[in-house]
Each structure stands twice: as C-alpha cells, then as structure tokens.
Amino acid sequence: MDWVDLVLSRRSIRRYETRKIPQEVLDKILEAGRKAPTADNRQPWRFIVITDPEIKEKLLQDEYNVQAASFIKEAPVTIVGCGLVREDEYTRKWGTIYSILDTTIALQNMVIAAWAMGVGSCWIGVQATPFDDIVRRLLKIPKDWKIIALISFGYPAKQPGPIKKKSIEEIVSYNTFEEKTTSR
After folding, report:
1. This model's pTM is above 0.85
2. Distance between CA atoms of residues 148 and 171, nearest Å
3. What is the CATH number for 52?
4. How far apart are CA 39 and CA 101, in angstroms?
5. CA angle, corner 118, sides to 50 and 139, nearest 5?
6. Could you tell me if residue 63 is inside a domain?
7. Range of the domain at 56
8. Does residue 20 form part of some domain?
9. CA gyration radius for the chain?
C-alpha cells in the first residue's frame, strides 16, 4: 500500500486488542508529533502519555465521559495534546491560534504514524465539556495550556469499513468560494 492509500484507509478505532504497544512503536508515534511543522518553530505543545489504568478509570468518572470515550479504558495508550496559550510577545502579535493549530498538526502526525505501524486511534474532543475540567484537574494541566484533544491508541480489535464522506464537488471550489466546482 502506498502512502496516500494508507492515509485514505485510516479510520477511527473504538475497540482495541489487549496487547500493549511496544515502547519503540510508541516512541516513533511521539517522534512523529515532535517533528511536526510549527509556526516560527515554536513547538508550543506538551504531550501527556497515559498508560496507567487507574488514571484512565478516573478520567471516566463523569457520565458524559463514559458515553463519549469509554474506549479509553480498552486502549493501551491515550495521549493528551496540550497547546501553550500563555500571553507573551508572540501571542500578543499573532494570537494563540497558532499553538492550537500546531498542536493539532502534531497530533495528526501521530495518528498517521500510528496507522502506518498498524496502530489504530480515535480522536476525542474535550473543549467546552465537563471532561475538560476533569482532565485538567486529574493531570495537573496549568491554565496557560489548552487541552486540544485526547487520542486513544491501540491495535484494532475490529477493522471498521469505509464511511460515507461528502463528494469532492461538495467541498472544493477553485479560485473563488462557489457552491459547485465547474472547472479546474
């Protein structure tokens, strides 16, 4: 399978095998995040790797969390991606949007690197939910760090089939913002 086909085949995995992710595989996943492009090479991220079953259990204390992310318990690893949003000269000039974007790109690099090594993942959003407060308190995340996402990682217990996506014509236009793509 070539690289593009690999990217196109990636699916969210919500059921995992019990086997652990070898440290060398996890290190490559983290390295893919570390090497992600970043505005002004600031690298405004911090990644918290959760492997402790007790911490995972505590993350799922709230009813919302259990419904939204119960598969965290099954996943051998969950990575919490945080972006630095502290006010400094850079953020006063450009805002905090770049740390959010940069951290998102790094997390996506991890997701694709994992998939290339046979490790599945699922992106878990926490913004503006009770989950955000629980994660922040439990993991002792300072206020000047924004939780961008949690991503569960593990070997897929089941391979989901293709999902329906919008057509290219529905999402792409050339040269101006148009409803339909008429020509390239």
Report:
1. yes
2. 25
3. 3.40.109.10
4. 9
5. 10
6. yes
7. 3-171
8. yes
9. 18
Contacts of 72 (CB under 8 A, 6+ apart): 56, 59, 60, 78, 124, 150, 152
Structure letter (DSSP) for residue 75 = S
Token pair, residue 144, equals: 């000047």
181: in domain: no
Q: Is residue 180 part of a domain?
A: no
Q: Tell me how many domains the chain contains.
A: 1
Residue (of 48, 52, 47, 51) closest to 21 by Cα position:
51
pLDDT at position 5, please?
86
Per-residue pLDDT, averaged over 153-160, amounts to 93
Residues 34-41: contacts with CB within 8 Å, 24+ apart? 34/106, 35/109, 36/102, 36/105, 36/106, 36/108, 36/109, 37/102, 37/105, 38/98, 38/102, 38/105, 38/106, 39/94, 39/98, 39/101, 39/102, 40/90, 40/98
